[in-house]
């Protein structure tokens, strides 16, 4: 249990914005009582990415049992829950609707309040969730102002958080998200989906300085761009194929995948870490927070901590990729700030973070 400035509450979180069907119970925004994630990654692997129709159908078939499991793992019934938090957007329309309908049905049936949550706000709150080993002191909560680097499959943003639920979007990617770049380059190197973990694994035995891939610094802005880097990897692969094989499309060539993966990974992480650190200085944020699927990346986790002057908050690996615990944690802060959603709320597939109310 942690000391809190806010009243106690248990929140059931539901997340279905992309290809994970997830439900979780979080107490007081920090204590994880259960966390169930049914990943569809294997189903989508054969398409090389998320297939929206398949995703929504799969959400429908697993949603009910995932919620049931989250409550039973927490040894609770719906009566013990204070509110139901659900991802309202952004995400795939057909996927979002499944979670929303489940949450609305539960809210209607139980009379418990419904709280719509922004998916990225969920990622931002993931480091609030405690992951303290037995016998150790719980980590203090992140403090404001903090600079957050949000890096997922769909988004790459620098966000200044000046208080609970207060987000100022400083910059974002102009083209591919960091996770998307990992996924696309992994496909290019024949490593499969999801690309992030595959690139990380391939890069383990590679030399990050083997290839000089470009960094798009976009100086004078807090924005990012990764499509030039992706194209540079593609051209390098073609040059290698032409040099080592018959021609630039010769797929029989044994590529130096480890070096390519390590050099690409370093190029992405270098820009992310450098810009996040400068932004923290510029906006006088003492603490840094990294969240979203790409925050699972080992090199990013090491480089963001190395040389940091203040505290750095990164979720444990199981809370980096999509989950409902983070939605419950963010939902808790909306709930204790008296925010409620009506049963008529719709999915918001494209919803900028700084437009959340
Ligand atoms: O946050 P998330 O689960 O879903 C979205 O909201 O998009 O992020 C998924 C993304 C994928 O692009 C995946 O390749 C990337 O996170 N990812 C990683 C790693 N693990 C997942 N990227 C780099 N290194 C990793 N270890
Ligand atoms: Zn996400």
Write a brief caption for the model.
The protein is of the alpha/beta class and 357 residues long. The chain is 38% helix and 18% strand. It has a 5-stranded mixed sheet, with helices on both faces. Strands 8-7-6-9-10 form a 5-stranded mixed sheet, sandwiched between helices.
- By DSSP, the count of extended strands is 10
Bound molecules: 5'-O-[(R)-(carboxyoxy)(hydroxy)phosphoryl]adenosine, zinc ion
The ordered string of helix (H) and strand (E) elements is EEEHHEHEHEEEHHHHEHEH
Low-confidence stretches: none
Number of helices: 10
Q: Give a quick account of the main beta sheet: strands, pairing sense, barrel closure.
A: 5 strands, mixed
Task: Describe the overall structure.
The protein is globular and about 70 Å long. The chain has 357 residues and is of the alpha/beta class. The model has no long low-confidence stretch (mean pLDDT 95). 38% of the residues lie in helices and 18% in strands. The protein has 10 helices and 10 strands. Helix 5 runs parallel beside helix 7 and helix 8 (257-282) runs parallel beside helix 9 (298-305). It has helices at 41-45, 52-73, 93-110, 119-125, 178-188, 195-203, 227-244, 257-282, 298-305, 325-336, and strands at residues 10-15, 20-27, 31-39, 83-89, 114-118, 146-151, 156-163, 166-172, 287-291, 312-313. A 5-stranded mixed β-sheet has the order 3-2-1-4-5, sandwiched between helices. Strands 8-7-6-9-10 form a 5-stranded mixed β-sheet, sandwiched between helices. The chain binds 5'-O-[(R)-(carboxyoxy)(hydroxy)phosphoryl]adenosine and zinc ion (ZN). Zinc ion is lined by residues 119, 123, 152, 292-293, 322.
């Amino acid at each position: 249990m942690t000391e809190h400035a806010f009243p106690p509450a248990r929140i059931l979180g539901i997340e279905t914005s992309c290809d994970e069907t997830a439900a979780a119970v979080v107490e007081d925004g920090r204590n994880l009582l259960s966390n169930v994630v049914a990943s569809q990654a294997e189903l989508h692997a054969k398409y090389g990415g998320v297939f929206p129709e398949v995703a929504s159908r799969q959400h429908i078939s697993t949603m009910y049992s995932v919620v049931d499991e989250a409550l039973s793992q927490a040894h609770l019934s719906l009566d013990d829950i204070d509110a139901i938090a659900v991802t309202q957007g952004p995400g795939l329309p057909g996927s979002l609707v499944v979670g929303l309908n489940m949450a609305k049905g539960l809210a209607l049936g139980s009379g418990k309040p419904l709280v719509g949550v922004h998916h990225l706000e969920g990622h931002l709150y993931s480091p609030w969730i405690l992951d303290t080993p037995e016998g150790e002191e719980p980590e203090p909560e992140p403090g404001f102002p903090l600079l957050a680097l949000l890096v997922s499959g769909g988004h790459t943003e620098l966000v200044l958080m000046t208080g609970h639920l207060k987000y100022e979007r400083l910059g974002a990617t102009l083209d591919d998200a960091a996770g998307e770049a990992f996924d696309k380059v992994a496909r290019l190197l024949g490593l499969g989906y999801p690309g992030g973990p595959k690139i990380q694994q391939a890069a383990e035995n590679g030399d990050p300085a083997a290839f000089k891939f470009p960094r798009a610094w976009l100086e004078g802005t807090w924005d990012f761009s990764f499509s030039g880097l992706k194209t540079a990897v593609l051209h390098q692969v073609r040059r290698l194929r032409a040099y080592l094989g018959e021609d630039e499309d010769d797929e029989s060539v044994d590529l130096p995948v480890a070096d390519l993966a390590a050099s690409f990974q370093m190029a992405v992480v270098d820009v992310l870490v450098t810009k996040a650190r400068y932004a923290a200085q510029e906006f006088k944020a003492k603490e840094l927070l990294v969240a979203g699927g790409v925050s699972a990346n080992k090199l990013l986790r090491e480089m963001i901590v190395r040389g940091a002057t203040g505290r750095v908050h990164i979720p444990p690996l199981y809370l980096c990729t999509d989950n409902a615990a983070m939605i419950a944690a963010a939902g808790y802060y909306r709930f204790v700030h008296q925010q409620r959603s009506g049963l008529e709320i719709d999915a918001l597939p494209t919803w900028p973070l700084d437009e959340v109310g």
